[in-house]
Amino acid sequence: MDFALPADLVAYLANSIDSFAREIKPIEEADDNIRFFDHRANGRAPIFENAGCRGISGKRCCAG
């Protein structure tokens, strides 16, 4: 089995990482913008009991 990634995909990923470092990272680090990028903040979001989530079967389909 060949697990090598295609060269064009590797180049695309490298370009994406470089673009992030060049354009997004400075915005994240400016002022107090980290609060918009810090995914640990998701734990402070309200948790709604069941949140009305029911699948086709009627069973609960989301965490809550």
SSE layout:
Elements: H1 7-29, H2 34-37
Number of helices: 2
**What low-confidence regions span 5 or more consecutive residues with pLDDT below 50?**
none
What is the N-to-C order of secondary-structure elements (H for helix, E for strand)? HH
How far do the termini sit from each other? Answer: 41 Å
Q: Structural class per helix/strand content?
A: mainly alpha
Q: How much strand content do the residues show?
A: under 5%
Question: Could you explain the architecture of this structure?
Answer:
This protein has about 60 residues and is an all-alpha fold. It has one domain. The protein is built from 2 helices and no strands. The mean pLDDT is about 75. The longest helix has 23 residues, at about 5-30.
Short description:
With 64 residues, the protein is mainly alpha-helical. The protein is 42% helix and 0% strand.
Structural features:
64 residues; mainly alpha; 2 helices
